[in-house]
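Could you show me just one protein sequence together with its fold in token form as a worked example?
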Amino acid sequence: MQDSRISIEFFPPRDREGQARLLNNVVSRFDQLRPEFFSVTYGAGGSTRDGTRQTVSSLHKAGFTAVPHLSMGTDDRSILLALLDEYQAMGIKSIVAIRGDQTSGLGSYRFNNAQALINIIRAHAGDHFDLIVAAYPEVHPDAESAASDLHFFKSKVDAGASRAITQYFYNADAYENFMDRCQQKGISIPVYPGIMPITNFHSLVRFSERCGADIPRWLMKRLMELSDDSEALNQFGIEYVTGLCERLLKIGAPGFHFFTLNRWGATTRICAELNLAP
């Protein structure tokens, strides 16, 4: 298990105090896990563009491997190309290329999907960036069918993606089935399960409804029972997610990408239980 790779995801803090807290407190906790990289999300329509860029720059200057998310669905092409140039000059080697959430008020150059974004990045920056894309074991909420969703995932791989991170899920069978279907389609890139620690019942339900992640009925009932006892909920969440990760490793997951919400407690405890910490 110790050879499994992990990566950590943050969202960009809103102010300088948040930036300092992330770098001085949260990142230092995660650095003990020797993550392959820290990724930084990109808000709908570029709403966190400056914050994402600043957080990536701060992490990079501090000596960490930083990976920006990029989704230009509502931005001009010139903004995308300027960001690519800036990241390349900064020494950034990887980008998480996603469609992202769509907003109103489209710019003059619209990317309708992640494949188009990958094509632009490759045309502008060649092979400089390692491109990471999203995968959906439980099917993207906007997809017409599971088959069409898998077809689109393959198109991203064919366009130049080198690995993928999944949307979070709580049923290992979904990942196993997805990987079997990928193999049948000749998709061979590493696909890292996205892991969301369970720390707040109401937030988890809200996130899951928005992104189409399924919470099994029995698990929903159990979490509901514990929703007013934060300590018991956290403990149960760590035990359940640890067991999920153990199952995923047994069926061949290459590692994990943790959606931390800028908190270190649950993720570090799960990694300790999995013996992933050096």
